[in-house]
Amino acid sequence: MYQNLPRDASFWRFLFSIDQDLAESARKEACPCGGRLHRANYPRKPRGGPGDLPDEYGYRLSFCCDRDGCRKRVTPPSVRFLGRKVYLGAVVVLVAAMRQGPSPRRVRELSRVFGADRRTIARWRVFWDEHFPQTPFWKVARGRLVPAVEISNLPRSLLEAFVRGDDDRQGWARLLRFLSPISIAGGLEIKVLR
Ligand SMILES: [Zn+2]
């Protein structure tokens, strides 16, 4: 079972290469106004990763339309950054999952390994228990998962559905790619149900 993220830096480079692919697809589509998209990356200071996190993690890939009067910002989905959360997406999934289950890892231990404090980890639990299941993304996307993932057990059930052991980088990539629609602006908006 998963206990860790793949340790070596090549895992993080691999995720970056997926982000580059996602960004390239977005750039090719151009701006709806017909303008060309230019690189306009956001600086980021992600937390929770290893000490040898590649330099590319200092920014989130993003674009800006080159037409005066438009200048629209286009930020493609990401497998590295989960929206505006400062921690790496994989860490937000893994740490929250490790707090669950029959013998949850202790907060102190998780804090030591990933650098997230008690309150941050508690916020992630609220995110997965209460916020995420209500998102339009999840309501549609869960139907595509076979076997169906239990809502009551997120994000552990998601990890179990995608990742097969500590070094399953392909599994991690599939999981983070699955979640990547929530990494863009508006991707987490909750629709009010009537
Ligand atoms: Zn434009």
Write up what this structure looks like.
The chain is mainly alpha-helical and 194 residues long. 40% of the residues lie in helices and 6% in strands. It contains seven helices and five strands, in the order H-E-E-E-E-E-H-H-H-H-H-H. It has helices spanning 9-29, 89-98, 107-114, 118-131, 136-141, 156-162, 169-179; strands at residues 37-39, 42-43, 59-60, 63-65, 73-74. The strands form two sheets. The chain has a three-stranded antiparallel sheet, covered by helices on one side. Strands 2-3 form a two-stranded antiparallel ribbon. A hairpin with a 7-residue loop joins strand 4 (63-65) and strand 5 (73-74). Helix 2 packs across helix 4 (118-131) and helix 6 (156-162) packs across helix 7 (169-179). The mean pLDDT is 88.
